[in-house]
Amino acid sequence: MKFLLRVKKHQQYLYISIILIVIFFLGNALITPKITLVTENLIEDIVIGNLKSKQNIVDFEFNQLNSFLIDSEKIIANSEKITDNNLKEKLLFTNDLAVSNNNINNSFVCFLVDEKIEDIVFSENANTEYKREIINLIKVLKLINFETSINDVVNKDGNVYNRKIIAKELANGKIVVTGYDINLLSFWKYFSENYKGEGGYTVLTDTKGICVLHPETDFIGKPLNSFFENISINKVLNNNLGRTNFGVNQKELIKDKVTSEFLGLEVLRYYNSVKVGKSYIILIVSFPVDIYLKESLVNIKRYFSWISMLAFCIFMLLLAVSRFQLRKEFSENLKIVKEKDHLVNTNEKYQRENAVLQLNQLKKKMNPHFLFNSLNSLHVLIDSNKELSQKFVLKLADVYRYLLDDRSGNLISVKNELEFLKQYIFLQEIRFKSSLKVSIVDNSNLQSLIKKIPFLSLETLVENAIKHNEFTKQKPLFIDIIINSKEIEVVNNYNPRKTKDENSHHIGLNYLKNSYEYYQINSFKTEVIDDKFKCFLPLLS
Question: In b/e form, how buried is each residue of 473-511, taking b as 16+ CB within 10 angstroms?
């Protein structure tokens, strides 16, 4: 009897619970189709994102392997004012750099006079059979106009090579031929270990349909005719002409639904082309339809149902428990939870900012682009000014000694930073000559020199000015570094490049901003006034 009376007394809560259950299932029935549609669109976006990522990786890696050939072409194009011996030395130096890459096996440089081989030099690791093949190939090439290039896939002794060769006639009538072999099996091992992408497997072919990369290495070096039964190579090349990555408009993508010989499953296969030097390679990415799309959709629906049911049960439980809890106790518990979340978020923010500082410092220490430019400048100096080139080497050594020096924090004294900056400016002035003019003005006392600033901050600002502004000998880039008692002001004339660098992510300025925020200094700022870019670096005690 007491139970029935209690039920009657609280029947309003029973009605509320029934209404909530009905609303839950109605809402679930209405929302599920929309969730399905949104999920399909999200998965399509993920697929497109994976395609862009894979293409960018292929673009970077293959153009890196092709860069040595481009360097050789530039050297030959600018060979009119140098002797044949100097040309030979420069080409051999470039080939030595190429062979230092673990994925490049052989290289050679050859000079022809009156269709006869005058001089030919092979890399140290080139065997007799390779030398014989190249010599025979050059004899065949003699029937062709010597303004040509070769980019073929060659099968040899269980290995597959991408053979790259250029031949050009010099002003003195001689013909120079140079090239190297890329070991595609070795490159696939490197590629698969460093880029373990998800959501599909990648296949590359040349414009003849010969396989360059494939997860099953037995296919490498063989024609993949089955991949182009429905989609021709010309269609892929014409569709992607003038575009460097998968188009923003998804309707422009070339795709085909086929059964994969490699997986034995139905796959959705996307086609695009990547420009490597003067030629193209065909990029094919296959996504298993059932595994990648259908299963993902089913899982998302199931997870959504579980989460919805769990949320509903928790809500009902909270509704029942709330009648037996005091509001004050609930408020206090909620406050404790919020404070705990705040502490967790604060700790995560500190760790994230600290990681950003370390990452940027490491990137600055290991800057391959700066080293590459410095070596190019040194390469030119060695022939023109040996005394200056020796000084250049010493300065470069001082710079990298400073960069690689272990330090516990990311702050450095103004004095040490200025000494390093002078070495760095020397290297850049050798590279840009009269196009770059840097001045350092000290308006402070000696106390300012012992104060601290973020490590590599001055070099970062000078490098940013060089990287993001257009300048010539007629319109040089002026950079003024003014040391005051409380701050350092870095000023340069502002003439931004018309074409922005897609690889630039403003890491340098973000590094400086995060460094000062880490030490709770908010006076760091940048501004553009009267066609001048100004940055103010506060000095830390």
Answer: eeeebebbbbbeeebbebbbbeeeeeeeeeeeeeebeeb
Q: Which long-range contacts (CB under 8 A, 24 or more apart) does 59-66 make?
A: 59/244, 59/245, 59/274, 59/275, 59/276, 61/187, 61/191, 62/274, 62/276, 62/281, 63/276, 63/277, 65/101, 65/103, 65/104, 65/162, 65/182, 65/187, 66/164, 66/276, 66/277
pLDDT tens across 100-113, in order? 999 998 999 999 88
Task: Report CA 215 to chain centroid distance, whole Å.
Answer: 23
**Domain segments of the chain: what residues?**
78-186, 363-538
Tokens at residue 235, please? 């269609």
- pLDDT tens-digit map of 394-408: 777 777 777 766 566
Q: Identical fold at 78-186 and 363-538?
A: no
Task: Give the whole-angstrom CA distance, residue 163 versus residue 152.
Answer: 5
Tell which CATH classification among 3.40.50.1820, 3.40.50.2000, 1.20.120.140, 3.30.565.10 matches the domain 363-538.
3.30.565.10
Q: Give the whole-angstrom CA distance, residue 63 versus residue 436.
A: 30
Q: What number of residues does the chain have?
A: 541
Give pLDDT, residue 324.
66
Q: Provide the pairing of β-strand 104-113 with 175-183.
A: antiparallel
Model confidence pTM above 0.85: no
Q: Which amino acid is at 399?
A: V
In the block, residue with structure tokens 């089955």: 226
Sheet strand arrangement including 532-538:
436-442, 477-483, 487-493, 532-538, 525-529
**CATH number of 78-186, picked from 3.30.450, 1.10.1760, 2.30.29, 2.130.10:** 3.30.450
